[in-house]
Amino acid sequence: STLPAVAEELLREIRKAFQESSHVPDDLLLGLKFIFGPCAVPALDLVDQRSVTRVRSPSGRTLYQVLGSSGKLYTCYSSCHFCTCPAFGFSVLQKSESLLCKHILAVYLSQAMGACQELSVSEEQLSNILLAEEEDEG
Fold first, then answer.
1. DSSP state, residue 39
2. Is the CB of residue 103 less than 8 Å from the CB of residue 83?
């Protein structure tokens, strides 16, 4: 699944603006709030706090971990717009009220602004992260 074209375009504009001036203009921030609703501001807070970490293994597999405002670590998969947080399951999957949760939006914004922490792990460590998520859900 992909984001609607207007959301993709907005994220491209944010990336471009940030590369040129190291900040996001107000009109793009308003667009963010308009398209993503109430998760826009908390997502920007997560980016400001550098709460997003890109986790990479030697094989090139990548996932993101976001330290939520509650202090819990959530795993996000940007390739399929999925997050392990309860808000994603409820607001996005069950109710279809939102395009995504604040954690995934923070991942996209961190990518656009070059604000991701980087963590290299072994294949085994990556597997352990994925298995820990399954245990949490089960």
1. G
2. yes
Is there a domain that residue 13 lies in?
Answer: yes
138 part of a folded domain: no
Q: Whole-angstrom Cα distance, residue 17 to residue 25?
A: 7
Q: What is the dihedral of CA 58, 59, 60, 65, to 10 degrees?
A: -70
Q: What is the per-residue pLDDT across 120-134, written as a single tens digit (0 to 9) for each?
A: 999 999 999 888 866
Which residue range(s) make up the domain with 13?
Answer: 5-130
Number of separate domains in the chain: 1
Helix spans in 74-122 (H): 86-87, 102-113
pTM metric for this prediction: 0.90
Q: Which of 49, 105, 47, 50 is nearest to 76 (CA)?
A: 105
The region, left, alpha or beta by phi > 0 then psi within -120 to 50, assigned to residue 80 is alpha
Measure the CA–CA gap between 100 and 104, rounded to whole angstroms: 6
- The reply to whether 136 falls in a domain is no
Tell me: the pLDDT tens digits for 68-106?
A: 988 999 999 888 889 999 999 998 888 888 889 999 999
Tokens of 48: 């400001």
